Amino acid sequence: LPVIGQSIGFFIAMKYNKAEKWLDQRTQKYGPISKLTLMGKRTVFLYGQAANKFIFTTGILSNQQSKPACIILGDRNLLELVDHDHKRVTDALMLFLKPESLKLYAGKMDGKVREHMDMLFK
Prior knowledge:
- The chain is mainly alpha-helical.
- It has one domain (2-121).
- Helix content is 65%, strand content 10%.
- The protein contains six helices and two strands.
- Strands 1-2 form a two-stranded antiparallel ribbon.
- A hairpin with a 2-residue loop joins β1 and β2.
- α1 runs antiparallel to α2 (19-30).
């Protein structure tokens, strides 16, 4: 049964920390946009950079998540925020996720990790 198999496959992947592999396999088999049944609820699966941009910039998606998605993600996640709160958080994320910002943060984080490793392993 696909209804049970998709949910079980997803939960097994989550349990063994292989969710990314599960997502990659699903994307290879069905493409970056597909439908599935997860925990008995019909769900649309979006994957990739275009999907992230669509979710972060579309205010109409907020507050339309299914009950299973709320169970998985929690009731205070980005997809549940509305209006001003949603815009404020997505604007902050988009500012943080710009390539220039990521380069800056990656350099800082690399320095901190190296400092920590030197402290622990010398």
